[in-house]
Amino acid sequence: MPLIEFQNVSFAYGETPVLRDISLQIEAGQLVAIMGGSGSGKTTLLKLIGGQIRAHSGKVLVDGVDVGALSETALYQLRRKLGMLFQFGALFTDLSVFDNVAFPLRERTDLPESMIRDLVLMKLHAVGLRGAAHAMPQELSGGMARRVALARAIALDPQVMLYDEPFTGLDPISLATVGKLIRELNDALGTASIVVTHDVAESLAIVDRVYFLADGQLVAQGSPAEVRASQHPFVQQFINAQADGPLPFHKPAPAYAADLGLQGGVE
Ligand SMILES: Nc1ncnc2c1ncn2[C@@H]1O[C@H](COP(=O)(O)OP(=O)(O)OP(=O)(O)O)[C@@H](O)[C@H]1O
Q1: For the whole model, what pTM was predicted?
Q2: Is residue 196 a contact partner of residue 43, using CB atoms and an 8 Å limit?
Q3: Whose CA is closest to atom 20 on ligand 1?
């Protein structure tokens, strides 16, 4: 059974459709990337998995459970299975690295402090930062802070990991380190993981599959090898970072002359 499944999911904010008829399946151990232009609905897709919003039609299943049908209490339980790393998922600045990672364990479990200590050190070890346990967030580089946030996200051994732009703002070395960690943690924990990213090269190096979203629809998908070889115009536009293509540079607008209030003007 897939850990994440979208069955013909559609969603709109008010009258504006954001996702249309999305179907996909992600198995345990799979790491996938969702790519698409700004506003194509990537973050919305993650919010449907976390239950922050509910599908207007179709179903979102996490570990076989229909997220849209859950009560608030049941959602709270479900979220225990999810780990999330967001671009701006900042660390608590007044807590040490250790206490940041311990936070979800203290909040969500009744484990004794001695066990929490072991778990925190294990998670920090997994991201290579056991040595920074007693540092404060202000003392960390951006890349280290992201790795601590990653350790915090996996504190409760999630079955599903959601990453929203995990590479943003990182230097090339930290970026490669975080990418490698995302892959390693996915494999070690056997999670189903989704990375929402603009970072084509980094994500192609680590993921099993890529889904391309445009205008709220899945327009292309494939393995990194298929994506690299694809002649699909959307895929090409992303891989080659072209400003214009199927995702247009210009947002649709009235004729220039009409916008300027000219009648019969020349465009
Ligand atoms: N709370 C909201 N209320 C109304 N419209 C929203 C809301 N959140 C997002 N939108 C709109 O929904 C569309 C999809 O947004 P979403 O954040 O999912 O896109 P995205 O692909 O993640 O974009 P980006 O790459 O820029 O983060 C956008 O047009 C956005 O303006």
Answers
A1: 0.86
A2: yes
A3: 39
CA-nearest residue, atom 3 of ligand 1: 13
Tokens 């694809």, residue located: 230
Distances (CA, A) of 116 to 107, 108, 228: 11, 11, 44
Asked if 26 and 32 touch (Cβ cutoff 8 Å), the reply is: yes
Q: Kindly report, residue by residue over 224-258, the tens digit of the pLDDT.
A: 999 888 888 888 888 776 666 676 666 667 777 77
State which of 9, 34, 42 you would mutate to test the pocket of ligand 1, scoring each by most atoms of that ligand within 8 A of its C-beta.
42
Ligand 1 neighbours, Cβ below 6 Å, are: 13, 18, 36, 38-44
SS3 193: strand
In 3D space, the residue among 224, 172, 213 whose CA is nearest the CA of residue 31 turns out to be: 224
| pLDDT single digits (tens) 150-172 | 999 999 999 999 999 998 888 88
Report the alpha-carbon distance of residue 69 to residue 59 in Å, rounded. Answer: 9
Please, what are the domains in the chain?
Answer: 4-223 (3.40.50.300)
CA of 18 to the centre of ligand 1 (A): 8
Mutate to test the pocket of ligand 1, among 10, 44, 195, 211 (most ligand atoms within 8 A of CB): 44
DSSP type of residue 67: G
Mutate to test the pocket of ligand 1, among 9, 10, 18, 47 (most ligand atoms within 8 A of CB): 18
Question: Do 202 and 176 meet the contact criterion of CB atoms below 8 Å apart?
Answer: yes
Q: Which helix (H) or strand (E) holds 41?
A: none
